[in-house]
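Form 7-S
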Amino acid sequence: MSNNEAINNIRTQANIVDIIGSYINISKKGSNYFCICPFHDDHSPSMSISESKQIYKCFSCGAAGNVFTFVKEYENVTYQEAVSIVADKIGITYNNKFKVAENIKYKKEYDIYSLATKYYQNNLKTEIGKKALKYLKERGLNEEVIEEFKIGVSLNDKFALTNIFLNKKIPISDLEELGLISKYDGQAHDIFVNRIMFPIVNNEGFIVSYSARIYNNEETSKYINTKETKIFNKGSILYNLYNAKKHIKKANFVILVEGQMDAIRLSSVGIKNVVALMGSALTDKQINLLKKLNVPVYLSLDNDEAGQKATLTNGNLLNENQIETFVISFSDYKDPDEYIKNMGKDAYIRNIKNKKSFFEYKINNLKSKKNLNSTNELASYINEVLSYVVSENDEILKNLTINKLSTDYGIDKKILNEKLANLKPIKIKKITEEKVKHNDKKKLNKYEKAIDAIIYFMCSDPIYIKMYEKKLGYIPNKTYLSIINDILYFYEVNKYINIADFITFISLKNKNVDILNNIVANSNELVINENEMEGYIKIVKEDIKNKEIAELKKKLKNELDFDKKIALAEKITKIKKGSV
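Output:
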């Protein structure tokens, strides 16, 4: 069985209604199913799921596709991983050995970073790199961890990497733009010199930047990081997310730490469901990444005052965005890296098991900063606790907290409830999820709608493939024509056509996927019959004819030769009459 056949077999056995229903609540209305769309900030069921066609479409944001597309977008995984997840859900063993065709937008840039990383890694194996390797091993990182995180070292030679790139004829301007090379007095040189190199991997698994650390106690910045580039925006990445995803799903929670060394340390002792911030506070995009994981977040940030502040800030953001949040507390050491090095893996695991809810952490943190023997500070503490309570949605939690305050401090519950009733919830900026990237809300003209419909019809039944070949046969648009040629090829090879399997076929080619999803979104509710197809073909033909006439008129206007002007005019007349 070929890869394509194996994948289509999984798609056929995986009912899209059941798979989407395993992630979110769905309900049946008429012949279709509906649910809240998880790809934008939806408040009423906007996503329609067609069981007969095995596709979905959101009427609001335009998200559309088949069962694999949904899992890919929802879980923020690659198409290969989505196929494996679906196979696992329906109990099919799948070896996940197929390859998606390379059609990567930033392939050149990714290749440059891949080359640089291999160079830095190789430096650790040289005589010059022994000192850096010794430093890493003294910090408790064995060769397996060093290889897993692709850690390397830049040499104490500011022209080393520059010369490698120059020998490979890579333009200096490209390297400057990617934050690897800089120019001083017109001479190009390496930005990273004599530092441990920690590659930053994006959410698709490509290296896009570095965090570079000193290791020989020189008096300079401890870390320097790659500037933001067209392939690197630190606010859209969580460090180690790409490697941690499968472990997060297995553990059913994700640990969020502050530093990259914290993430590496936890991973090195087998706690691999860990990601790290790329700054002190979560961004909108990072929160969206965590929401898509659909698991609780365990905050394990630094133990100093700044870390506690970051725990409160990030915990509030996570809570406000309906992400269940806990806090892992530890004492005596600054961060998880130091704690595990000194106390060991088992001690940290005990702290995971003794996690506190974020609400409990907030109350305890507030209490630790108050002198409760002071009447004023006690009143301040109770008022602040109530300000936390009013923002909570859990009525049981609210009642338990009021009861505890009443019991612990001898305050009438009626007074506490009256005070609570007069408080307004603290509003924290709620992050709305990004619309799926293939969404395109631009208004289509009559001609574009007709082409969308023709392609959708051709994906739905061979009758319309034959109508296209007989009555149209060509569309003067490279992208649309490429999709149509793929439809013709799919039908010729497989002797059948349906929209769900054709989406898989296009996705494996990694070409025009977003455009096809838009076509599905724009055309999913059309009435499909031969009369409709005839009408769309007529619209496209008319548009082709009008464009051809306009082009000939332009030529006629600029033509100086009298005989050629006559010939052009005659051709225009024939096209108008339909004889050409």
